[in-house]
Design a protein that fits this description.
- Keywords: Cytoplasm, DNA damage, DNA recombination, DNA repair, DNA-binding, Endonuclease, Hydrolase, Magnesium, Metal-binding, Nuclease.
- Helices cover 52% and strands 22% of the residues.
- Strands 3-2-1-4-5 form a 5-stranded mixed beta sheet.
- α2 links the parallel β4 and β5.
- α3 packs across α5.
- The protein starts with a strand and ends with a helix.
């Protein structure tokens, strides 16, 4: 299974490609789409959509793992993130990817073992789980890889549960 993980944001949308074989996961590529604050919103969202479309065409993922929106105190930031998330989902939908959505807490729990983990712990565990020789940078790319690893774990658990149910 090839999974595209996305950490959405208007200024920075992290992406990561993870391939799974059995219980093993490995990173194939990762990066970040950066947009400029002074550009019109349509140009910024278009860049996110186009870049992710190129990533999908290059690496051929079949599944998407995307972080859901965290509505903290900054509503304006949440709206901008939601717009970037929408642009990313449009690119993935056009390519026919199956969507998995996860809260930041679910991703941290799946990768680190604690929903309260900080960014350094997430980056460290992503490096460890994916057997990288360095921590992925920027943080947005590490978070995207973490989303993909979370999806791989959830998908594996779902398949095992379905097999068990079929046997009983």
């Amino acid at each position: 299974m090839v999974i595209l993980g996305i950490d959405p944001g208007l200024a920075h949308t992290g992406w990561g490609i993870v391939e799974t074989r059995g219980t093993a996961c490995r990173a194939r590529a990762y990066g970040c789409v950066t947009t400029v604050a002074g550009e019109p919103i349509d140009m910024r969202l278009g860049r996110i959509c186009r870049t992710l479309t190129e990533v999908i065409e290059k690496y051929g993922p079949t599944e998407l793992a995307i972080e859901s929106i965290y509505f903290g105190e900054n509503t304006k930031s949440a709206i901008a993130t939601a717009q970037a998330r929408g642009a990313a989902i449009v690119a993935c939908s056009a390519a026919g990817l199956t969507v998995g959505e996860y809260t930041p807490m679910q991703i941290k729990q799946a990768v680190v073992g604690s929903g309260a983990a900080d960014k350094h712990q997430v980056a460290y565990m992503v490096r460890s789980v994916l057997a990288l020789d360095h921590e992925p940078r920027p943080d947005h790319a590490a978070d995207a890889l973490a989303a993909a690893v979370c999806h791989a774990n959830v998908s594996r658990t779902r398949r095992l549960t379905e097999k068990r149910s079929a046997l009983t």
